[in-house]
What we know:
globular; 0% strand; mainly alpha; single chain; 82% helix
Amino acid sequence: MIGWFFSLSPVFQALFATLFTWLITLLGASIVFFFKEVKKGIMDALLGFSAGVMIAASFWSLLSPAIEMANNMNMISWLVVFCGFFSGGLLLFTGDKLYDFVHQKMVNKMDTSTSGKLKRCLMLVFSITLHNIPEGLVVGVAFGSLAYSIEGSSLASALTLALGIGLQNFPEGSAVSLPLRREGFSRKKAFFFGQLSGAVEPIAAIVGAILVLKIQTLLPFLLSFAAGAMIYVVVEELIPESQSNKKKDVMALFTLIGFSVMMILDVALG
């Protein structure tokens, strides 16, 4: 099974990796069938661990290879990496502002009827889906870069990156399905909308991998773009949510553990 996965093209590797992250979203959404609530400490620990993984991956799996490849192509490496990194974060920042604007418009018109519940549902799914698109793109770019055998880019690091993103998808899935259940949606509908937020990741991953494979000169920009998007998600979503826990120091340790795991895999196995 492992040998079969290794033999696949980077595009299919990215596809199967993000199908895994989608599966984790699905598992998170399925919590609605078993519990009304999930312990906050468990969710926050997962978010903290994922934040550490994604921070480490941003440098060792994305920025460092981007700098090396830009140098090999005789590009102005610091400029290419800066433009890519800042663009990745700026895209999510713009998306957040757009969501806030649409959200406010919808809230002003919202009622307590079935249509009002549907609007709340759509807003919740949209907010999670918005962040899942760059996460899928990140995985696609990471696997696509394997085709060039650049230093700092390895299958182990790409798989660990997918694992880290998958782990933080678990609380995201439940963060959609459980509130919808409290809104009065049936368990099946709450589960459906919960897992739907992760369905965009395989599509984004395929796009990212194909772009990298078809246009090699874009790789340094895309790698740094993915890093910027990841850091924005970590700073804006994961760390603040994990630090809302009463045991902030313990949650910080989980972030350090996640960072250490990714660092070891990248440095020792990369």
